[in-house]
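Would you kindly consider the sequence and fold I have copied below?
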Amino acid sequence: MSMTPHLYVALSGHGFGHLAQVAPVLNEWRRRWPEARLTLQSVLPEAVVRERIAGPLALVVGAADFGMVMVDALDANIAESLATYRDFHAEWDVRLAWQERVLREAAPSLVLADIPYLSLAAAARLDIPTLALCSLNWADILAGYCPDELDLQALRAPMLTAYHSAVAFLQPTPSMPMPDLRNARSIGPIAALGRDRRPEINRRLGLGGSETLVLMGLGGVAMRPPLEAWPELPGVRWLAPPDWSVARPDMANWAMLDDCGMLDLIRSCDVLFTKPGYGAFTEAACNGTRVLYVERDDWPEEPWLSDWLLEYGNGVKIDRRQLASGELAKPLRELLAQPAKPPVAPTGVHDAADWLDRLLAG
């Protein structure tokens, strides 16, 4: 193996949750191996990737998976997803040849996948060692949505073969169960920590300090509630994403806090208003922020995320009707009345970096 290790990361572009899982691990690994090379394959916006991952990295633009085709931030289009999986697997050899070519050119020491199975399959063909890391896998997500499809087993077979080719499939806490994976290994929660900048935020938003500040974000898939119809809640101020362009005195656009990254915002706000997702839930629980979240009950990973948040963090679930009407006074009161749980330690960051260490040290 060459003296300078080269880590190649294949990253799903299905929302920002996969980046939220990988970035803290890569930053810790980088601290240990400052000289090592890093290549990231993804279709996520470069600015978002570079904001989360410190240090130099080469970017390969290319999608090795699509996850599920989403209608919006909350709902998957199941028929379209199935059709896309059938097309993807019908063109498997062509796609595999593309991924092999890209990997051969990069010539990495190790491939880390979160969680494109095509990349794992290509690396296996080239005898490049691989490590998988994710709280879900696409074979089980597909089975969760389409348990009765006649070709389900045929679609899952190449996925499971690829996942099994990894030295280990690391499952950060909380993960969905993966009963068919023989190489699954549980590790601690993964999250990055922000800095508390609340006094400065209060000053810039003209807040007195007694308000409840709620950060709104529904993940990397576009979806905007009908905020104009929401009632004003006394003592509550909302921070909305820049592209939601909302003109209300009780709602500010977080772009005006442009030097505050997302993690600092999560750490500094009282409540994160979001949907169930690995990154959102662990970042909130590890930064000691309460979570008001919209049900997403058909997402196969959801029960394990929710159960963990309610046990180790502070959370209250609302339904779609409340999202539309903005009747959030009661759930917010409930959430703020919960005794604060201590912030969770993101021990999975070191666990995963230890795996990378061992594999790169040969």
User: Anything to note?
Assistant: The longest strand covers residues 6-11. The chain has a mean pLDDT of 92.
